[in-house]
Amino acid sequence: MKIDDKLFRKAMSSFPSGVTIVTTLDTEGQSRGFTATAFSSLSCNPPMILICLSNKAECFQTFTSSGRFAVNILSQDYEQLAMRFATTGADKFAGGEFVLGESGLPVLPYALASLECKVDQFHPGGDHVILTGIVEHANVHEGEATVYFGGKFRFLAELVPAKIDALKLQVTALMIKAVRKETRAGTLDCRAVLDETGCDVQKAIDLIRSRGQKTPKIVWV
Ligand SMILES: Cc1cc2nc3c(=O)[nH]c(=O)nc-3n(C[C@H](O)[C@H](O)[C@H](O)COP(=O)(O)O)c2cc1C
């Protein structure tokens, strides 16, 4: 039974992925490219990668005949560029962001990584084709990645602190126990100080000590 299109897209959007721009040159030497998240490492020896390209893409013919492609893994500064390369008919290379790489393919100089490949094989897959490529040149730069998740572009730096903050908001019994053990302060005092310090156990202990908060008569065991 065929599942609903929307459900399939939603299921796939719950898999976080990096974002790439895949480029090549047409027979007249014009740069062509599209935004792709369907990218994967394939083999270490020889070094191989794969991308999946829709057979409805305007650039389909170029990619399946040029014999070469480059994958540019985007850092967090390239969200607008990714949108431009996901728009059929856009003047994608007008901004002059790309330079020619070692094999003559368009590459982004400040991509997290650029991988220039020779096409190895094509594998049909429904309404897409899988292009496998042998990597002939690679460049790597430090930086934060752009992530596509839940149908949105996100930054790793944005996701991680948000999670930590969410976790920090709740005072747990374990935190109270840890603060009580070190300070012998009362449960309510410990909870209040943990709230005050954003659930930072060490800060809570230090704060209680610095205030000289009274220890209870019943000794903590
Ligand atoms: C985040 C994102 C990821 C995408 N990933 C792919 C992909 O892996 N393969 C693909 O064929 N199209 C993908 N697309 C759509 C193409 O980038 C878009 O259809 C592009 O315009 C096709 O090239 P064209 O302009 O030559 O038609 C993606 C779009 C977005 C926004």
Q: How would you describe this structure to a colleague?
A:
- The chain is an alpha+beta fold and 221 residues long.
- The protein has two domains: 5-162, Roll (Pnp Oxidase, Chain A), CATH 2.30.110.10; 169-211, Helicase, Ruva Protein, domain 3 (Orthogonal Bundle).
- Helices cover 30% and strands 32% of the residues.
- The protein has seven helices and twelve strands.
- The strands form three sheets. Strands 3-2-6-9-10-5-4 form a seven-stranded antiparallel sheet. It has a three-stranded antiparallel sheet with strand order 1-11-12.
- A hairpin with a 2-residue loop joins strand 11 (146-149) and strand 12 (152-155).
- Helix 5 (173-183) crosses helix 6, helix 5 (173-183) packs parallel to helix 7 and helix 6 (187-196) packs across helix 7.
- The termini are far apart.
- Mean pLDDT is 91; it is low at 217-221.
- Flavin mononucleotide (FMN) binds at residues 19, 34-38, 52-54, 57-59, 85-88, 148.
- Flavin mononucleotide (FMN) binds next to strand 3 and strand 5.
